[in-house]
Amino acid sequence: MSEHKKGLRSEAWFARQDKMGFYYRSFLKNRGFPQDQFEGRPVIGICNTWSELNPCNSHFRTIAEHVRFGVLDAGGFPLEFPVSSLGEVTMRPTAMLFRNLAAMDVEEGIRAHPLDGVVLLMGCDKTTPALLMGAASADLPTIGVSGGPQLRGVYRGQIIGSGTNIISMSEQLRAGEITLEEFHEAEGAMNRSHGHCMTMGTASTMASMVEALGVGLPENAAIPAVDARRNHLARMAGRRIVEMVHEDLVLSKILTRPAFENAVRTLAAIGGSTNAVVHLLAIAGRIGVELTLDDFDRLGRDVHCLVDLMPSGRFLMEDFYYAGGLPVVLRALGERGLLKKDALTANGKPIWENVQNAPCWNKEVITPFEAPFKPDAGMAILRGNLAPNGAVIKPSAASPELMKHTGRAVVFETVEEMHHAVNDDSLEIDKTCIMVLKNCGPKGYPGMAEVGNMPIPQKLLREGVRDMIRVSDARMSGTAYGTVVLHVAPEASAGGPLAFVRSGDMITLDVAARSLHLHVDDAEMKRRREAWVPPTPHAARGYTKLYIDHVLQADRGVDFDFLVGKTGSPVPRDNH
Ligand code: FES
């Protein structure tokens, strides 16, 4: 067993030869652990988000077993523990409402227990940022293991992608182009294996962020959940975390400013989810790295989207893995001077050493930088009198002809009003209009739901319209697409200018100029502000009230104001 650099934190529990040592060892011995498990071995917490209520993480008991084997291989003592799991498709009103709650669970769970290092098992969208945020505030040696994407969806010989084809097929159903029977058949054909969404949606994007940040081992992002190599990676992570404890390689040595710059550029190069913007801001805030909304625009400007994956393109994560996966993308960035090559990663090597020889096996799936799938694909950060603190649009998922456009606003005060209106043929709207949705931000929904990609009104669908400009303080699913302006800050419910937009106002979107402008003069805006009645908060008690009272706006990562920063993992006082 290699020597650790400093005393093990767990010795404050297990090396005690007194009443408290008896407590701490004896109750664990009820599972049959011999005495030597408590002597000088790094205790590794396997932080598991397994839950039957979160189908994307339903295979995590198996992954945890492989991590356990790895920890034992390396002479550690593995102890698995559960934390809140956030199922994107099952939780209402939105899993995002509970991301910060899960992060608190993770942080406090790590600090309160006799752990020297942690393996984070992450999959469905919010589980990854929640665990990274909590672990960042605890700052022990930490390694991330993603659960991996599902196999491709295949429906009647056609490849279908999770989320992306739900959206397109529900539009086809509404337009009368497919039957309800076909719709039901496609449900079973889409999600046909363990794993998370297999498009480059939020889960795959965040798994890629884990790898780009250096928190996970190389290839973490793309190995399918059911591929044996996913279990192999889990075992290697179990071995590696024991070494990381010996090296005192805490998370803050990996989550540095260069690591975040690599993640932001990678986000552009994979055409990743807009959700990663709020999550990366929140994680950076926890670990103490200065990262701003404008960094996403500035760092992403020279970066092309290299991967032809849904929702922007044709292929799926399984294809991405077979083509070489994220190391190929990181290599391409490095060869163009767009990677901080010295950024340290969980395997103890600089990121460049991990990826510099990564081979690409399919140039259709991962295109060369000189002939990219989509040029200049970074997130565009918009500002203007409608979004003084910023808004986000993903140009690679938008329609080029709408990137500069002035249109008449059609405003919905709530998501329910919008859902009713888009199916009502009397709605006064045409394809040149700009749909505006309010009160769906962090405080307003609450939880900033993924409702920003509003459905195209039914009567326009029948005319063949498939995209329009949509503006809101909401997020959208990473599997969604369209000319959708999101994360408008401040949000309407917090009294942002979005609250004062009225149907009939004119709005100009100019992505090249990074501008979102409402053509209403300041005096009129002042009148509307004075007449504005804030919406009644959604909760008078409980967690939701805590959330509404303390959540930060989208430009600051939607974390709680009192959770920004880290406490580390000092050993708490004795419990008896
Ligand atoms: Fe879990 Fe998409 S629903 S990753």
3D architecture notes:
Strand 9, helix 16 (415-422) and strand 10 (434-437) form a beta-alpha-beta unit. With 576 residues, the protein is α/β, with parallel strands linked by helices. The model has no long low-confidence stretch (mean pLDDT 96). It has helices at residues 11-14, 19-26, 60-73, 99-112, 127-138, 164-174, 180-190, 202-213, 228-247, 257-269, 275-287, 293-300, 317-322, 326-335, 351-355, 415-422, 458-462, 522-531, 542-550; strands at residues 43-48, 77-82, 117-122, 142-146, 153-155, 158-160, 380-384, 387-393, 404-412, 434-437, 469-472, 484-485, 506-510, 515-518. The protein starts with 10 loop residues before the first helix and ends in a 26-residue tail after the last helix. Strands 12-11-10-9-13-14 form a six-stranded mixed β-sheet. A four-stranded parallel β-sheet has the order 2-1-3-4, with helices on both faces. The chain has a two-stranded antiparallel sheet with strand order 5-6. The relative contact order is 0.11. The protein is built from 19 helices and 14 strands. The structure holds FE2/S2 (inorganic) cluster. Residues 56, 88-89, 124-125, 162, 196-197, 201, 203 line the site of FE2/S2 (inorganic) cluster. FE2/S2 (inorganic) cluster (FES) is lined by residues 56, 88-89, 124-125, 162, 196-197, 201, 203.
